[in-house]
Design a protein that fits this description.
Blueprint: H1 2-31, H2 33-43, H3 46-73, H4 80-107
Helix pairs in contact: 1-2, 1-3, 3-4
Length: 108
């Protein structure tokens, strides 16, 4: 049940925070090079990175949980052991995907 609630919460967070960030990005892009440079400077700070990492974790966790829900919809994974395993693995896989994503981004 907690994974289902987390699935809904991460979907909402990814939608609202991602949309807000997209609108800020588009606004600064339209405002000119100085505003865009300020946006990039803020995104590169520690708190900007925390927001970006949080949004990306929300997207990855929501995607992994969506796959779990899809498998349940087609009738797979209803056994208690299997369901408990997937419930425990969903947040872990989301964290691992986020870490791999940011490792690739920061390695450039």
């Amino acid at each position: 049940m907690a994974v289902s609630i987390l699935h809904r919460a991460t979907g909402s967070a990814a939608s609202f925070a991602g949309l807000g960030l997209l609108l800020c990005w588009l606004g600064t892009l339209a405002a000119g090079p100085d505003a865009y440079a300020l946006f990039l400077a803020q995104a590169g700070t520690w708190y900007g990175r925390i927001v970006l990492i949080g949004i990306s974790w929300s997207v990855f966790n929501h995607a992994v949980s969506g796959v779990r829900h899809f498998l349940l919809d087609i009738g797979a994974g209803f056994e208690v052991k299997s369901n408990n395993l997937w419930s425990a693995l969903c947040p872990v896989i989301g964290i691992l995907l986020t870490a791999a994503f940011w490792a690739c981004l920061l390695a450039r």
